[in-house]
């Protein structure tokens, strides 16, 4: 999905690459591309799966990058853990640049997935059983993420 007109109006920069397509009238139009997988529009379910996977990886990188310094500061773990933490946070920042829309909208949608991944971390890393309220809250947050990520595109 190309950078949307409303995103450009808010300061998002379209990619330098351009795809030229023939329209039904024989005219040509140029569409900015941010990656090769944007050649064809994806069905909403596939787009949601792709975005969800990218959001989950982004959240995991952020959580690892913050958890390792927490271990160093709160549980007296070795200081060298700060090195993989820095790498993880750099990966987190890079993954954010792969999202297909303006930064503010990306952060808003990402928040839903972050909540879900943080709760999975709580369960499987910290070993704490989730409550029905945790699960319901994550479900609501993920629904909000889907609404933001799959909204109709301008133009």
TrEMBL record:
- Listed transmembrane segments: 48-73, 79-98, 107-124, 130-150
Q: Identify the keywords attached in UniProt to this record, alphabetized.
A: Cell membrane, Membrane, Transmembrane, Transmembrane helix
One short Pfam family name for this protein?
UPF0060
InterPro entries, per the entry:
EmrE-like, UPF0060
Does this entry carry the keyword Transmembrane? yes
- Write out the GO cellular component annotations: plasma membrane
In terms of NCBIfam families, this protein maps to: PRK02237.1
Protein name per UniProt: Uncharacterized protein
Give the classification, highest ranks. Answer: unclassified sequences, metagenomes, ecological metagenomes
């Amino acid at each position: 999905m190309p950078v949307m007109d409303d995103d450009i109006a808010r300061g998002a920069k379209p990619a330098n690459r351009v795809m030229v397509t023939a329209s039904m009238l024989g005219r040509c139009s140029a569409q900015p591309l941010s990656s090769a997988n944007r050649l064809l529009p994806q069905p909403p379910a596939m787009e949601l799966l792709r975005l969800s996977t990218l959001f989950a990886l982004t959240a995991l990188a952020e959580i690892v990058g913050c958890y390792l310094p927490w271990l160093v500061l709160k549980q007296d773990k070795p200081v060298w853990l700060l090195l993989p933490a820095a790498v993880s946070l750099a990966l987190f920042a890079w993954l954010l640049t792969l999202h297909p829309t303006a930064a503010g909208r990306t952060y808003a949608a990402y928040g839903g997935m972050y909540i879900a991944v943080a709760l999975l971390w709580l369960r499987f890393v910290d070993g704490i059983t989730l409550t029905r309220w945790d699960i319901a809250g994550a479900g609501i947050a993920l629904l909000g993420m889907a609404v933001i990520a799959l909204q109709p595109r301008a133009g």
